[in-house]
Amino acid sequence: MSPRFDAIGLVVSDMTASVAFYRRLGFAFPEGSESAPHAEAGVPGGVRLMLDTEETVRSFHPEWRAPAGGGRASLALRCEGAGEVDAVYEELVRAGYGGELKPWDAVWGQRYAVVLDPDGNGVDLYAPSGQ
Predict the structure, then answer these.
(1) Cα gap 80→10, rounded to integer Å
(2) From edge to edge, which strands make up the β-sheet containing 99-106?
(3) N or C: which end of the chain has fewer CB within 10 A?
(4) Backbone angles phi, psi at 17, to 5 degrees
(5) What are phi and psi of 130, to 5 degrees?
(6) DSSP 8-state class, residue 88
(7) Cα 105 from chain centre
């Protein structure tokens, strides 16, 4: 037996806000996900992004409490090129999402930026330099 990586799960405080944020990044959540206690969007390669409300998690784990502060998880999304890193970052910041790290040319050879989802989780946007 060999378990395989299948999904990333995030506990969210506001499903509507989280689904809207991740849809802006291209995650295809089904219609009605905004009001569901659990939502999933598949991504190329077969991995899924799963969102659960805090209330859903507490329904099967009553003692659970959300960690204080943001930065509980981070997702990294590869962009087509440096221009897309800049454009996606600017579009999300203009839409009111937090910009944690403005686009820059990282010493490890990538154009890199970080935006925050509605719960303060980092979403890294990157592309190899020269693309």
Answers:
(1) 25
(2) 74-78, 122-128, 110-116, 99-106
(3) N
(4) -65, -40
(5) 90, 0
(6) H
(7) 22
What's the predicted TM-score (pTM) here? 0.88
Q: How far apart are CA 5 and CA 115, in angstroms?
A: 25
Contact 70, 10 (CB under 8 A): no
Rg (CA), the chain: 16
Q: Looking at the structure, tell me whether residues 97 and 119 fall in a common domain.
A: yes
b (16+ CB within 10 A) / e for 6-45:
eeeebbbeebeebbbbbeebebebeeebeebeebbbeeee
Q: Which two tokens stand for residue 50?
A: 């799963």
CATH code where residue 53 lies: 3.10.180.10
Q: Which residue range is the domain that position 53 belongs to?
A: 7-60
